[in-house]
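Lab notebook, bench 4. Still working through the backlog of constructs that have no structural model yet. Next entry is a single chain of 123 residues. Request: give me the structure tokens for it.
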Amino acid sequence: MDETAFLSEYYSKNKHRGLEVIGLAYEYSTDFHKAEKTLRKFQTRYQVEYPFLNTGVKTSDSLRTEKTLPQLTPIKAFPTTIFIGKDGKVQEIHPGFEGPGTGKHHEEYKKWFYATVDEMLKK
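Model written out:
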């Protein structure tokens, strides 16, 4: 939730620069309509303007990332941010999120994130 709030704010301030963000949703139900309803509530709560893709895979499925991102090494930390360049290639994978409760680690993360995205947008 902390990462969603962070990304949502960053996206709304930087989408004009060509930034795109897509969230992958792993829900409790594989029923599309139930999952969509839950996802819409989440998007509204955090004022998320970027799209989410419903993966159709349950959060409890231990192979969820292997099923949805088979070309990547299995992702075990959630959230994980995958940075994809304008060329469509993975540039960086960052597991976890150092949220506001981590103090100086959050500030360091933000500096790293901003620099990473700025560099990618220049290319």
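Notes after review: The CA atoms of residues 20 and 75 lie 21 Å apart. The radius of gyration is 15 Å. Flag for follow-up if needed.
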